[in-house]
Design brief:
217 residues; six-stranded mixed β-sheet; two-stranded antiparallel sheet; 5 helices
């Protein structure tokens, strides 16, 4: 009987030692899951590539030159190729003076309406023979990254040109360049010199901007 009690005691003792050993081993992982990043290594923040203003200005002028030529040749298919056809902010406007009053057409919004307006100018009585006149190259540019999408460039530009030959005028334009795509004309606005002289020469297209920080050299 005495031997049986000793055996039970030894069994309990061994079991207790094994249990304590298992608890002490536990997991080797630290309970404090702090970052193992070396604080001495600087964190690099990705930045956008600088804008190549000369290259962008040349591409924008190619778009405007194509529009200028296509409008005067009555080639709507060529205008369509350089226009962002369906955004809600696509706009077209021309304004001149007739009979002492400013005669504006537009701003027309949306590509189907723009297309119809341009074709109407080409065939309407009093405007069927009128062309875009002046320079087919922009002389001033404002280019920046879009606030809504940094991968998209947007630009405003102006040229000494206008629809209808009433002396000097101004053409205003707004264009965008999505990532991996070409520049696309989105809004264009023309006022003749007579309109400017009457104090009505400001652009009426909605996206045109002239922020000093975006002025291209």
């Amino acid at each position: 009987m005495k031997w049986q009690s000793i055996r039970i005691f030894l069994t309990l003792l061994v079991t207790g030692i094994i249990s304590i050993g298992m608890l002490s081993c536990g997991s080797d992982e630290p309970t404090d899951r702090t970052s193992t990043t070396d604080p001495s290594v600087p964190i690099v923040v990705a930045t956008a590539e600088p804008i190549d203003f000369d290259a962008e200005k040349n591409e924008i002028n190619q778009i405007y030159s194509t529009f200028f030529s296509a409008f005067n040749r009555r080639k709507l298919v060529d205008i369509r190729k350089i226009w962002k056809e369906h955004p809600v902010h696509a706009q077209f406007r021309v304004a001149w003076v007739a009979g002492g009053f400013v005669e504006p057409v537009g701003p027309t919004a949306g590509w189907p309406q723009i297309e119809s307006t341009i074709e109407g100018l080409w065939v309407a009585q009093g405007t069927s023979g009128q062309n875009w006149t002046g320079s087919n190259r922009f002389s001033q540019f404002w280019i920046r990254r879009s606030k809504s999408d940094p991968n998209t460039l947007e630009a405003s530009a102006r040229a000494s040109a206008s629809y209808r030959s009433q002396g000097s005028g101004v053409t205003y334009a707004y264009l965008i360049k999505p990532e991996h795509e070409d520049w696309q004309l989105q809004q264009i606005d023309s006022v003749t010199g007579n309109v400017i002289n009457m104090g009505r020469g400001d652009p009426e297209i909605s996206k045109y901007f002239t922020d000093e920080s975006a002025k291209a050299p």
